[in-house]
Design goal:
Blueprint: H1 2-5, H2 10-18, H3 27-39
Length: about 80
């Protein structure tokens, strides 16, 4: 997770993001990745593979979701979706 937190140069950050797929295994890991991406202006969250996540509770809590794309997310392993948005 440390590599996502060091955004350094904006272009370098965007290059890293577009070439990487994140595969969190916990609700908190997913929240941290989403928050970091959105804080850096990255709205296409399809670089996150959520197939291992069963708890989607509050993952978007208190976040601006304007223009966010999660259209390719596979949430079929999800069991908890309370207050997701």
């Amino acid at each position: 997770m440390d590599d996502i937190l060091d955004t350094g140069d904006d272009q370098e950050f965007r290059d890293i993001i577009t070439s990487k797929t994140y595969k969190p295994t916990t609700n908190q890991e997913l929240k941290d990745i989403i928050k970091t991406l959105l804080e850096n202006g990255y709205k296409d969250l399809n670089c996150i593979d959520v197939s291992l996540i069963s708890d989607f509770n509050s993952i978007f809590f208190d976040l601006d979701l304007t223009g966010v794309d999660i259209s390719l997310w596979d949430v079929s392993s999800g069991e908890i979706f309370s207050q997701m948005f």
